[in-house]
Amino acid sequence: MLVFLARRIGVMVVTALCLTFVVFYLTNIPAKLETLAKTQAGSRISDAEVASWLDRNGYNQPMLVRYGEWLGIARGWTRETDDGTMTGRCYRLTGTTEPGAAPARCGLMQGYWGNSTRFRAPVSDVISARLGATGILMLWVLIVMVPMALVVGVLAGMREGSRTDRTLSTFAIASTATPEYVSGVVFIALLASSTVGLSPLLVSWGWIDGPVLFQGNARSALEKITFWNFALPVMTIALYGMGYVARITRASMTEVMTQQYIRTARLKGVSFPNIVLRHALRNALIAPFTVIMLQIPWLLNGVVIVEVLFSYPGFGWTLFEAAANNDIELLLAASVVAVLVVLITQLISDIGYVYLNPRIRVS
């Protein structure tokens, strides 16, 4: 197991370096840098002024050198100003201009993620705050989605071809085929609109005091989460992800129920609930376990539409803001977080195989 973990961690490090370099290259192409210069210095500056701004801020160095600076394995760029003071990547981090007062390296390995040009704050502070908000959203989505998906999948797979199986399978396919931006808009129109849907009807009946039943804007959930301001984004994400997990669970349960040991248990007179719970369920959960683990990186990166739709300032909303405003440092930090989440969840799912199925051995 230790050799397996060491090998997988080594592969994870190489994969992370390759993926982050691809993102670094795409966010530092000349067109992106020119847009950044015009965003920071003025949209009407000339080409010569753009080149001067890029040179003053260390963007004219070779791509690999700047990637090494960002990682923290290469020395940060420095430049002496006309008045004899120093400026550079590490000097800006420490806020000093005295020669030799700043560290030689200041990158990812030293814990420096850069400064966000969109939020005018350290990237680490922005990422940690937004990631925490998305973490709360992901937690509630998993709490709602996983039990419902497993129940639907198990009930459908217990009796293949029955009316229950056909009904639940149709529901799972329909939920997966409906994108979040469709179901989210439908939920807002039905439950969070003061002019259409259920809210005007409930107000006329005197069943609710406010103008709407649910809040279509989830920004207030950052201060205090309530059922009324957090239910719609959770329902939108959970409904889309639930169908896929339910279908995998149903397929796995159907396969397990045809095994010889299930038939033997039936011939011995074991009750059907005991067969499902004690014999079939554990083996049927091996495939859904992997799918559930893969839902975590999907939730982290796939909530962009939902967070923008419901104005919830989480990780996805921040990623959208960084891309829309060409915030290179924030985009790079978000890519690192996304890559790490994907790699770590895959490692956890591989380790979980061993405990779910004793026949699986790590060689």
* Estimated structural class: mainly alpha
Helix/strand order, N-terminal first:
HHHHEEHEEHHHHHHHHHHH
Distance between the termini: 8 Å
Low-confidence stretches: none
Q: Kindly state the number of beta strands.
A: 4
Number of structural domains: 2
The CATH homologous superfamily of the largest domain is named MetI-like
Oligomer: single chain
Adjacency order of strands in the biggest sheet: 1-2
Q: Kindly provide the radius of gyration, computed on alpha-carbon positions and rounded to a whole number of angstroms.
A: 26 Å
Proportion in helices: 55-70%
Describe the structure.
This protein has 363 residues and is mainly alpha-helical. The chain has two domains: 2-112, no CATH class; 123-356, MetI-like fold. It has helices at residues 2-27, 30-41, 47-56, 63-71, 89-94, 123-158, 163-177, 180-191, 198-205, 227-256, 260-267, 272-284, 286-302, 304-309, 315-324, 328-356; strands at residues 78-80, 86-88, 115-116, 121-122. The longest helix is centred in the middle third of the chain and has 36 residues, at 123-158. The mean pLDDT is 85.
